[in-house]
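User: Can you help me understand a structure? I only have the sequence.
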Amino acid sequence: MLGTLLALNVGSIAILGNGGRRIESAFEKTPVVGALDLGREGLPGDEHAWKHHGGPDMAVLVYAREHYSFWEDDCGLELPPSGAFGENFTTRGLVETEVCIGDVFRVGGAVVQVSQPRSPCFKIAARYGLSDMPIRVQESGYTGFLLRVVEEGPVRAGDEIRLVGHDDHGMTVAEANRIVHVDRRDVDGAARLLAVPALADGMRPKLMRRLAGEKPPAERDRLWGD
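Assistant: Let's start by predicting it. Here is the structure, written out as tokens:
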């Protein structure tokens, strides 16, 4: 598998809002010219306003440029060339139906591993003024995904993204998203996903509660900011 890093994006905490609720967020990203040193916690200069964002298992958010046209047509949005979904890496050639949890990629001088699907939150809604945008994103499967950094190193727009490792126990990001966000009563799927060694620790508790027979939470804080 071969992809391309089309844009490298970072953001600072600012007021985010589009015709309604206004919140603090670093969702809006700016493309970087030149190289940045990718570290275990992500890119220098990229801030996080919410405790659920960032950390070693969520160091980099990836989103496929291929999906932009879908959102422009489906929602009537005018999207910027990169960073439209708060992503750090805007890519071509890496989509959720092909990339697996546990896949290892070399990009520039760094090595990264896919850790989980993105859990879309209410900040996407605030950015575009569409209250149901997080639900649309997770139901579409066009969520993007998160990376942990295995080897630190410089990255820049234009770098190749080359698959260098694949976990035979992995599952596609699209299937993981379906299990976590869409078919939330799928107990067998939860068990299969928990068996993926590379799955981020932060995703495991909700899946374990599902195996224990607990009712899935409404997740209103994530989806609606309640």
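Now, to help you interpret it: The CA atoms of residues 18 and 129 lie 5 Å apart. The chain is about 25% helix and 25% strand. Let me know which part you'd like to focus on.
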